Amino acid sequence: MFLKQTTVEESRKVLPKAKEKRARKTLGRMYKDRYLYLMMFPVLVFFFIFKYIPMYGTIIAFKDFRFVDGIMGSEFVGLKHFIRLFSSEDFYRIFANTLLLNVYNVIFSFPVPIILAILLNEVRNRWFKKSIQSILYIPHFISWVVLGGIIINILSPSSGVINQILKACGAEPIYFMRSSFWWIVVFVCSTIWQTAGWGTIVYLAAITSIDAEQYDAAVIDGANKWQQITKITLPSIRGTIAIMLILRMGQMLDVGFEQIYMLQNDAVLNVSDVISTYEYRVGLEGMQYSYTAALGLFKGLIGLILITSTNYIVRRLGENGLW
Amino acid sequence: MKKKILVGGIACIALAGFMLVGCGTDEEKKEIKELSVSVYDRGTISTSEGTYSDNRWTRWIEEETGIKVKWVPIPRNDAKQKLSLLVASGDAPNIITEYEQGFINSLYEQGVLLPVDDYIQQYSTAYKEYLQNHPELLPYVVFGDGKMYAFTDRRSIDSIANHGLWIRQDWLDKLGLSAPTTDKELIEVAKAFRDRDPDENGVNDTLGLSVIQWQEITQAMYQASSLWYLEDGKLVYGPLTDRFADSMALFKTLYDEKLIDQEFITDKDSSNQKQLWVTGKTGILTNNYNTDLARDLMENDPAARPVPLENISTQYGKNGLWQETVANRYCVFTNTLKNPQTAVEFMDWMIDKGWFTLKFGIEGEHYQMADNVPQVINADKNKKELNYAIDYGILTQWNVKPEWIPKMAAKDEFSQKIAALRAQSLETALKNEFRRDIPYEPAVPEFTKINTEFAPIKDKVRMDVIVGGSAMTPEQGLEKMRAEWKRLGGEDVEKAVNEWYQKNKDLLTTK
């Protein structure tokens, strides 16, 4: 307390009036909320230690990293790994694969939780709503090792359910996992299956915060359900959707390794070889850490660009962005 | 409140400092008898036995040696990745064991390994002697700079043999056929198995083959394994030879003629292949020479008579199926090791005494001596209590003879039957030598780099050839692979590999 007062006293002499006033106000507010700051402190420390300090390891992307020399001791090689990355045709292939799978995912699986949340919101029977929600959440808790096995079995051309149905309808059975086209469809559908239910939580929360009086007023004005959804629910959760979209954009170069690894097979390597499997193969099996660090850094950079530009667009469209 | 946190913080820092100091002085005084060693986790330990890091054998080892060994379980199927991660994060076990020379070599390239020749000279007795008796192992453990970087032991013939073929003798007899000896005959027999209802159930529900490890097996049949072959004084890479196209052609025929499961592509863990074989839907099995699946089949259908099938011959002659090199497991000291004397002591104990008990168990409990060979008392008991211990015996002097196998097995009829089959299978697997022109693969970083990119291309093209119908012939597939290899800079790799060969020619002559 005493210390703080003297600093303010001293600054008064040096600083111009307006600035001084503001500084004093800030300090005063900080003091008033000192317990909040104290509570925030561990989080800041956490981020610093676990998110910022490890960043210094990124410099191995510019070095020829060997275990024995350590991160600092390894030889500095400039952009060698980046040059190799951009001159490798395989890089463009896996880059395109990764991007394509993510574009499909954004187009097809991003809207699903929103639709589900709106549908769930319209369900009036509490018991029914809760049980549907629980059923939708379950896939989120099943690991890909299990889900992958289930999917391969369900889609089996000889014994799988889907093909039994096809056969019953007189159609030829399809070996889904073997065809490059169907494999992508399976990939996107399995993503929806696993993530859509869990994704509804955020949107349901947003919907709950809508003022019920708006609906009452709409009903009095004679609005039907569809009009209520398009005129009240959707506009009210637009902000949430925008934020989720921005966050999703940051992951455009990520494909969950487990999912792809479980679903992949030799016949569809041309569409299923993505950055994460490439990193696994080259980085861990081939022990080329510097090269994969360069790839990781590039991936982060693209993510940053995508997040920033989406944020900009969203703001131009009149929504609140992330910042 | 702030003050309290401050005091707590200072106390923490002081405590940590104190602990660090504590460690420092301990080390200076005397070598601590502690080691950490990697052990394969094959998931075969039962819960009643404990875990891979704590069970009756880890405790036994500690009692016998007086060394506190911390076993670090490494999942067998992801061994390289897990070990790489541990090494990269600085948590490498003091001693790492791994079968793949290439991986050990990349650890050496990374500067993780300690040279061991001085330690052996200084501290070892048993292993020094063992090495003098087995000079053939030296080329495998002396690395680029001429120093020795690993301990290894000579493989027993039962682990030199690896892959194997099996066929249903009862089906052959029923259809009046003899066992196939060439690739053409293999296809004919498989067709007969498919069409002529060998299981006599009146339904056309049988296939020719169950295919496990088919990539390696078909490659070995045509001498086109993923190895470097010496041809006209030059090293050439197996998957780029003309023979590789023929190996693809064989498998393509098997697939096109519907002699194999049409869904083998997604059967990544081979569970479907195993099921087809065990339930008597297929008559030929490509797998390894072990009797596990023959045993399962006979348990399921006592009338079945699976027998080992000698590798078939092709237009290139007859090759053996994959056999390992004489050097067995590589045990290396990593740079986290601070007490080499203790480590060498441990290795000495292992090669001298430890291995025997870890292989055969306790006398009177797991085995008894009969005809001068240790004989199993109760196979079921050993399956639970002993079989997982084998991975703790990181150096062994074990070398079996096929005729010992029935003697070592338990005395009940079924065990004896299986043991006889195993002996026969081992002999069949070793009958033909597997073509391996150089003792180990080129330690050329360019090759490691290209291989991570080339291997998936190879797998994809091969799959396109096999399941693609007439879209791509094996020859076109091979052309495509060669073009891709070239595009990735394969010519430089070939040059580097051959330079390496010229440089190390003398070291590589030991067979």
Briefly summarize what is shown.
The complex is a heterodimer of chains A (323) and B (511). Chain A has 323 residues and is mainly α.
Write down the CATH class of one domain in chain B: Alpha Beta
Count of DSSP strands of chain B: 15
Seen as an oligomer or otherwise, the chain set is: heterodimer
Mean pLDDT of chain A: 87
Number of domains of chain A: 1
The description of the largest β-sheet of chain B is: 4 strands, mixed
Helix content of chain B: 40-55%
Number of strands of chain A: 2
Poorly predicted parts of chain A: none
| CATH level 3 topology of one domain in chain B | D-Maltodextrin-Binding Protein, domain 2
Strand content bin of chain A: under 5%
How much helix, percentage-wise, in residues of chain A?
Answer: over 70%
CATH class of chain A: Mainly Alpha
Indicate the proportion of strand residues of chain B: 5-15%
End-to-end distance of chain A, in Å? Answer: 34 Å
Radius of gyration of chain B: 26 Å
* Shape category of chain B: globular
Structure write-up:
The complex is a heterodimer of chains A (323) and B (511). By secondary structure, chain A is mainly α. Chain A has one domain (80-316): MetI-like fold. Chain A is 73% helix and 1% strand. Chain A contains 17 helices and two strands. Chain A has helices spanning 2-14, 17-32, 34-52, 70-73, 80-87, 89-109, 111-122, 126-137, 144-154, 161-168, 180-208, 212-220, 225-249, 257-263, 269-272, 275-285, 289-316, and strands spanning 63-64, 75-76. Chain A has a two-stranded antiparallel sheet with strand order 1-2. Chain B is an alpha+beta fold and 511 residues long. Among the domains of chain B are: 32-156 and 326-370, Periplasmic binding protein-like II (D-Maltodextrin-Binding Protein, domain 2, 3-Layer(aba) Sandwich); 163-322, D-Maltodextrin-Binding Protein, domain 2. Chain B has 21 helices and 15 strands. In chain B, the strands form six sheets. Chain B has a four-stranded mixed β-sheet. Chain B has a three-stranded antiparallel β-sheet with strand order 5-13-6, with helices on both faces. In chain B, strands 1-4 form a two-stranded parallel ribbon.
